[in-house]
Design a protein that fits this description.
By secondary structure, the protein is mainly α. Helix content is 68%, strand content 2%.
Length: 244
């Protein structure tokens, strides 16, 4: 349309079904590019639809803004229903959290481990539940094995003489996601983890790399606590060295 209008040719946009019905009415049932061109030409000659004026650039821009405004009004009209659904989801989430906590407290072993893990600054209840439910190997493996299982140990991407960038991936993705959030909190409110993170950043490590290293350190600490039945303070000395 724009090309024809720019060339000064009259243009009209017609309903494709209307043209197809016209073709059937004239006995042209087959459909090819050549036949379509003939049908369109015949339709224009017999029906003579009224050419439409093409909008200029300013009119098109104004029309686009109006269309966007109509979209926003439509979105706002469904807001009450969306807010109601969000409130329902939040209530269901609270109920599910209570159910998870209740299920956790049914086991004395889980309860003991929850108290032990939850004593680490920066570790919230959701991480402890995730670890107990989805990482039963916690406390039974060494630091390298637990880091590899969770997926926070850098993996090689080498081929021949080429050395690719190391990255972490795969394994227990839900555990790694919960561990990531706790590591972020720990770098702010856990003095040991904060010092470790700041040391890495001062050494020129990128933020993402430093956070991944903190995740690896944190899962090492969490793995050592039930493994050796040690408290947070004693475990940190074993893993990080003396703390000031």
């Amino acid at each position: 349309m724009a090309a024809l209008g720019a060339a000064g040719r009259p243009v009209v946009v017609v309903n494709p079904r209307q043209v197809r019905d016209f073709a059937k009415a004239t006995g042209k049932l087959a459909k090819t590019d050549v036949l379509d061109a003939e049908v369109l030409a015949l339709f224009a000659e017999w029906v003579r639809p009224t050419p439409m004026p093409l909008p200029d650039a300013e009119a098109e821009a104004l029309s686009a803004l109006l269309a966007r405004r109509r979209q926003l009004i439509a979105m706002l009209s469904i807001r009450p229903g969306v807010e109601e659904h969000i409130a329902w989801l939040e209530e269901k989430l609270r109920a599910l959290d209570e159910e998870l906590s209740h299920a956790l407290r049914q086991s004395l072993l889980w309860r003991e481990r929850e108290i032990l893990l939850w004593s680490v600054p920066g570790v919230a209840s959701m991480l402890t539940i995730t670890l107990l439910a989805e990482l039963p190997e916690l406390g039974t493996l060494n630091r390298k094995q637990i880091a590899a299982l969770v997926g926070v140990a850098p993996l090689n991407r080498d081929s021949g003489i080429l050395r690719g960038k190391r990255s972490v991936w795969g394994r227990r993705a839900p555990v790694r996601s919960a561990l990531y959030m706790s590591a972020l909190v720990a770098t702010r409110f856990n003095p040991v983890m904060r010092g470790f993170y700041e040391h890495l950043r001062a050494a020129g490590k990128a933020k993402k790399l430093a956070i991944t290293a903190c995740m690896r350190k944190l899962i090492t600490v969490l793995n050592a606590m039930p493994k050796h039945h040690t408290s947070w303070n004693r475990t940190t000395v074993e893993v990080f060295g003396p703390c000031s």
